[in-house]
User: What shape does this take?
Amino acid sequence: MFRRLTMTLTPLALSLGLAGCLNLAPDYQRPALPVPAQLPATEVAGPAALPGWHELVRDERLRQVIQRALRQNRDLRVAVLGVERSRAQLRITDADRWPSLGLGLAGERAPNSSGKEVNTFTAGLQLSSYEVDLFGRLRNASDAAGATLLGNVAAARSARLSLVTGTAAAWLTLAADEEQLALAQRTLATRDETLRLTRLRADVGAASELDLRGVQTLSAQARATVAQLQRQRDADLNALNLLVGESLPAELLPGAMAAADAHWLADVPAQAQSELLLGRPDVMQAEQSLLAANANIGAARAALFPAITLSGSYGVASDSLAALIHDGVSASTITGSVLLSIFDAGRRQANVEVAKVNRDIAVAQYEKAVQTAFSETATALQGQDQWRQQVQAQRGLLEAERERYRLTKLKYDVGAASQLDYLDVERSLASAQQGLVQVRLGELLNRLSLYKALGGEERGAALSAQTPASASEPS
Assistant: This one.
């Protein structure tokens, strides 16, 4: 019986040993970077390591908001579930590389060689159709599924980074909205008071109808601005709540962005080498797609060669069901087949061409991802110093407008300046205050853009930590 079992399993063992011996996929070589080797120079120096988002974000309320978003955002949840789905699909693809064994019981009644009706019962292991992967078709399909999984891992990392920076940007934008709304409300209160005083002066003939109408116009403009900013504030709050996945409590909302507050975010250190961009999760995802396309070429090429399949069974047989367990005799079968398609109207060769074109498309998409990464990083790097200079200039403008307002008001109070001069300088001061809020927000958003462009804390994250638990090599 042992000899028969050995003879039955030997072809299966040999087929497993031969499986995957040939790999018809092209040798993979990472495409050369289609961008300059150096990122644009910047005056800001810093360590090569980027801070984690906890270190980037300095406000504790914003940290809590981001943590809530990471727990509850539905887009991120979908990205993570996509990874789990790809992991399961990889296990399915890997399973095709191994024999499927089953335990079966069969009965048959048929005439024997003498024409007598006899019963035959068999029980034992059964090997369904198993493809010997001599030319690596199944191996390359498994490699493609593994690359797809790693690409989805990178996509989930990219979604996480986008969520962190997007939530921070939405929260800071809401803070700017609150500050601009507060400034507009103060301006409206001042305009309403000026309108009241002007109306009193007009009643006693100390102000003309033209002066009164001019102040009424300014008051109406301020009221319209307040309504517009309230609408913008509500829209931005709703956008933030959508990112977080719930309505935020009041204690986690930012409040007004103080113009002198420069400590919302830490500085983002500058980088120099373009190769660092290869660690961005979106670039890593594009490269995994290229690897999958490369493996698919091997699978398509292997389909041009004969398909070798095995099937068989091993167990015991008897003429009665009762005697099957104790008196049954060993019975085994092994069947092999080789199938070579000689005419398919060029379908298999066309599949190879499709796989090659898909690989070329993946190369172009990878290069585009690298170029996009370079462009985004270069823009944010070049904007760092420019935004800081603009903030300083805007602060200087605000100080000058404040002093001009103070001097003009002194002259207006003693009658040395007209009401038109006073309203004009008041309008200029309000504009300078609003401008500083907008410029400061732009500088903070540029920091977030640079952090995201460089890959954030997800940059260079080892995908090996997420390597799929694929089946062992049959060989």
